[in-house]
Amino acid sequence: MEGCDMRNAAKRLVAPGKGILAIDDNADVVFPRFAELGIEQTGDMLKNYWSMVTSVEGLSEFVSGVILSEDAIAMDMQHGKSFLQGLAAEGIAAGVGLDQADIALPSSEAEKVAGGLDTLEKRLTAHAAYGVHFAKWCMPVRITEALPTDFGYQVNAIQLARYAAIAQSLGIVPIVEFDIVTEGDHPIERCTEVTGRMLEAIFPALHTQRVDLAAIVLKPNMVTAGRGNAHFRNIEAISRQTVSVLRRFVPADVPGIAFLSGGQSPTESTANLNAINMAGRDAPWPMTFCFGRALQDPAQSAWQGQASRRKDAQRALMHRAKMNSLAQRAIYDPALENQD
Fold first, then answer.
1. What is the pLDDT of residue 340?
2. CA separation (Å) from 94 to 17, 273, 305?
């Protein structure tokens, strides 16, 4: 994909009223969730689930792209490309999640970076040849009184920039993601500070690696207090602080911002996205969703591994996608939750 095509592809991922569905967890993450729901933890069940999610009729009204796991793509290669064909039939772009097991930093072992950078180019080349158009690679960021360190900020930024440069060199749109984890009782001001410093480190690193900012999608956390803080669900503070820090550090030529849900419930993440868009109506970039469990959990609960409940699960996924589409346009109303 040429530079202009990548820019257009990035814009399509954050088109008005649309967002991204992330189903890029591999089997080791999906199976514990299956176990909670009493779903058999087998390759056949994974195939059935991924097939169900990638063939939802009408999903493209609300979803522009779906991020698959490398396990899913490997399975798709064995079974006739049904996942990618299902997405293509709906006009939905296929992406791939590339981060592997986290690695501790040698001189700061309490901090980690995503693994897999050493094999990323080889893996992504194969995925691009298979038909993937965008990619995701996420850096985990832990907050304590002492963390992240200056070294941690810089290593995370450099690794993300290197990933983005490799992706663009192969014609793949990179989603640049960092996830400030919500564990702890830190106040929202501390998350604002850490989010700002991550952004402050990332964009110079992207520039140094000659990454085209007009051909990326930024995927940050929403700015929240720690989950153990009494103000974790303060929607007004979340929207205000999130928009403020993004305005300060994100260049206007970035095509769009697609938030991760950060362990929030499906309705919490939707309400927060709506409030952020209300607070940032005049922002220079669209702000949308790139949710994983916040979109999938209701569908998995409705499905429970039963073929007879496939349509119920697809309706649950469509409902959540529609609610988040409304939130992306700042017109979500919680009263709509019980009308579909």
1. 59
2. 18, 23, 24
